[in-house]
Amino acid sequence: MEGMSTRALPHPVTVGVGPLTIDEVVAVARHDAAVVLDPAALVEVARSREIIESLADDIEPHYGVSTGFGALATRHIPTELRRQLQRSLVRSHAAGSGPEVEREVVRALMLLRISTLATGRTGVREATLAAYVGMLNAGIAPVVHEFGSLGCSGDLAPLSHCALALMGEGFVRDATGERVQAAEALAAAGLTPIELQEKEGLALINGTDGMLGMLCLAIHDLRELLVVADIAAAMSVEGLLGTDDVFAADLHALRPQPGQAVSAANIRKIMTDSAIRASHDVEECPRVQDAYSLRCSPQVAGGVRDTVDHAARVAGWELASAVDNPVVTLDGRVESNGNFHGAPVAYALDFLAIVTADLASISERRTDRFLDKARNHGLPPFLADDPGVDSGHMIAQYTQAAIVSELKRLASPASVDSIPSSAMQEDHVSMGWSAARKLRRSVDGLARVLAVEVLTASRGLQLRAPLTPAPATGAVVEALLAADASRPGTDRWLAPEIDTAYRLVVDGTVRAAAEAHTGPLN
């Protein structure tokens, strides 16, 4: 979700000293951190290039150097056509269609291809790698389209559009966001288009970089939203006169799921010193236990946390990879392989879409309880000022429900689908790019669902006056009021308030307001 805040400052990121981290990917992709090449990496790049050049005139076929590609790999390419082979590969594979992909995704994709090139396993020249870094640091983002990748043989079309720009062809967005010819943008940045040599075209397009970049961005954003989900749950439990006894550490220790314990600890901190909670902490309280959507918040959000951690491990392994075909091995062989298959990344992306939908679903259920007179324990129907004349938050919940329904559709896995391509040579593909594209929509939808819950819970807490909320939840209420959202009263145009709440969720304001009283939440 473009725009989600990060706590890390965009210091320069050095490539070639080891695997990139998720935070480094976010810093470059979203916050324009500069990329610096480690000099030691260039030594290995030069060494592997010598190996490729030693094969350039070889009469023996070497895939990607002296043969065609995919189903055309049986065609032996004469020496005089081998550089043309690389140019033709990029031009023909830059075949994307549909809307433009977001700038942060393109930058992540470029960074991750640079990272693989810097391993020295692809056989590109140092000049080609340096030019790619120069294009990224100049803020030039090639125009990449929504459709074109099957998530196997790499994210071919998206990466080809980037390689095309490196050749000075096609369209890009310059640092100001203007759509211009690639040659024009390169010239303005003082860069010279690259004339590809043996193996380089293939090396530039054969990786899982697009889907991996989007996985890294989603993991970062979901970790932020999980904290907001705990804040929203605490506000709802408090506002609906629920109990925080069920979040006790010893209860959660009986089921040692790590994410569950983290979520419960967050909710306990957030509800500390609530006068609303204290008001019904008496023996006469008829409530035996709360509904699942309140009581089981840590179990659901905790399961999401653990799934995100699993996805982060998958991302970490992929960030440590050198994905290309063929590769130059450490002992100098040039070998074909199948490491470009995106299945491991695709599975993680699909798994995240499932848990994102479920986290949104439980949030919507808590919101709905606030609006139902039979279940909200003394609050007006729909939190309306004059029910019947006013509708309150009735349709805000409709908006939530519509988004949750969409998230359930987006949770259908892309990775179970495979369409053969390249005359059946590439007869099983991952669809990882498609999994990543739908996950981005899911993460954005989750942020909007949580925003409606925070907005509704804030209004519910205010309607409990003169009882006061916990300092942390009260601070969130005040942050919304300061932005002119969630104030009880007669009906008014609600869409701007929902948008405001969404902005405060994604820019970190909601989290910061709570943490000013709780300290860091996990």
UniProtKB/TrEMBL annotation:
Give the EC number(s) under which this enzyme is classified. Answer: 4.3.1.3
Q: Which superkingdom, per the lineage?
A: Bacteria
Q: Name one GO cellular component term.
A: cytoplasm
UniProt GO MF annotations: histidine ammonia-lyase activity
Q: Would the keyword Lyase be found if you checked this record's keyword annotation?
A: yes
Q: InterPro entries recorded for this chain?
A: Aromatic_Lyase, Fumarase/histidase_N, HutH, L-Aspartase-like, Phe/His_NH3-lyase_AS
UniProt catalytic activity: L-histidine = trans-urocanate + NH4(+)
Where it sits in the cell: the answer is: Cytoplasm
Give a yes or no for keyword Lyase in this entry.
Answer: yes
Q: Which GO terms describe its biological process?
A: L-histidine catabolic process to glutamate and formamide; L-histidine catabolic process to glutamate and formate
Q: Which UniProt keywords apply?
A: Histidine metabolism, Lyase
Functional pathway: Amino-acid degradation; L-histidine degradation into L-glutamate; N-formimidoyl-L-glutamate from L-histidine: step 1/3
Coiled-coil positions: none
Q: Which family does it belong to?
A: Belongs to the PAL/histidase family.
| Protein's name in the database | Histidine ammonia-lyase
Report the source organism. Answer: Phycicoccus elongatus Lp2
Q: What is the lineage of its organism?
A: Bacteria, Bacillati, Actinomycetota, Actinomycetes, Micrococcales
